[in-house]
Design a protein that fits this description.
Largest sheet: 5 strands, parallel
CATH superfamily of the largest domain: Response regulator
Pfam families: Response_reg, Trans_reg_C
Oligomer: single chain
Helix content: 40-55%
Strand content: 15-25%
GO molecular function: cis-regulatory region sequence-specific DNA binding; identical protein binding; phosphorelay response regulator activity
Shape: elongated
InterPro entries: CheY-like_superfamily, OmpR/PhoB-type_DNA-bd, Sig_transdc_resp-reg_C-effctor, Sig_transdc_resp-reg_receiver, WalR-like, WH-like_DNA-bd_sf
Protein name: Two-component system catabolic regulation response regulator CreB
Number of helices: 8
Number of strands: 11
Keywords: Cytoplasm, DNA-binding, Phosphoprotein, Transcription, Transcription regulation, Two-component regulatory system
Distance between the termini: 25 Å
Strand order of the largest sheet: 2-1-3-4-5
Number of domains: 2
CATH class of the largest domain: Alpha Beta
Bound molecules: calcium ion
């Protein structure tokens, strides 16, 4: 995650103090004095900051408005700087998408500590979203599709049925005879090596999807790609 912090604050001495504390702590501070200017930057930047420190009392538009507009296109965490108690009431009372606030005058170290806490929480959320939203392998039986590393695999009928069977029972050891019975129904002349040949093709396709997703060069290293061979017994699905 980017360690850059955008400070939107019109009082230069406050911004400087904060920027210094952030720099000392390993962050890359950036400072703007106007709300509109900041929104314009945030709308167009390809490298958004990790967090925004936002003063409420800005000369052009209020920090509240900046936050409200920001939330229409960005989830970047916001830490408000506030000078008045009635502002605190508004931050707490309204759902404007603030992550925390600090009252002026503040200790820069306190602000940095709050920033670290918000970023830790954010990191946890992002990780959870990644874990639930993008599993590496997804079986879509209604669509007769299998997605690996975000890409739909281009599978033949038997490859699909074979991988589906394995994926539906992770860790379960299927003998070749069982797989033939489940997958190659109505194909009496199927041989043991038919299963092996299809496993080989599936591994190649899974491997290609994996390489595509990482952009890695073909390392020519043979891996089982989640389809484990149990010598003399059969196969199981165990995506590591
Ligand atoms: Ca101000």
């Amino acid at each position: 995650m980017s360690k850059s912090i955008l400070i939107i604050e019109d009082e230069v001495s406050i911004a400087d103090t904060l920027a210094y504390a952030l720099k000392t702590d390993g962050f890359i501070p950036q400072h703007l004095s106007l709300g509109q200017q900041a929104l314009e930057l945030l709308r167009t930047t390809t490298t958004p900051p990790a967090l925004i420190v936002l003063d409420i009392g800005l000369p052009d538009i209020s920090g509240f408005d900046v936050c409200r507009q920001l939330r229409q296109f960005s989830d970047t965490p916001v830490l408000f700087l506030t000078a008045r108690n009635d502002e605190i009431d508004r931050i707490v009372g309204l759902e404007i998408g603030a992550d925390d606030y600090v009252s002026k005058p503040f200790s820069p170290r306190e602000v940095v500590a709050r920033i670290r806490a918000i970023l830790r929480r954010q990191q946890g959320k992002v990780q959870m979203a990644a874990d639930t939203a993008t599993p590496r392998f997804e079986l879509k039986p209604q669509e007769a599709r299998i997605i690996a590393y975000g890409q739909t695999l281009n599978l033949t009928r038997y490859e699909y049925l074979l991988l589906k069977t394995l994926m539906e029972s992770p860790g379960h050891l299927f003998s070749r005879a069982q797989l033939m019975e489940i997958v190659w129904t109505n194909a009496p002349d199927t041989l043991d090596r038919t299963v092996d040949a299809h496993v080989k093709c599936l591994r190649a396709k899974l491997r290609q999807a994996r390489l595509n997703s990482t952009g890695a060069a073909d390392d020519a290293e043979a891996t089982d790609e989640g389809i484990i061979t149990h010598r003399g017994m059969g196969y199981s699905w165990s995506p590591a």
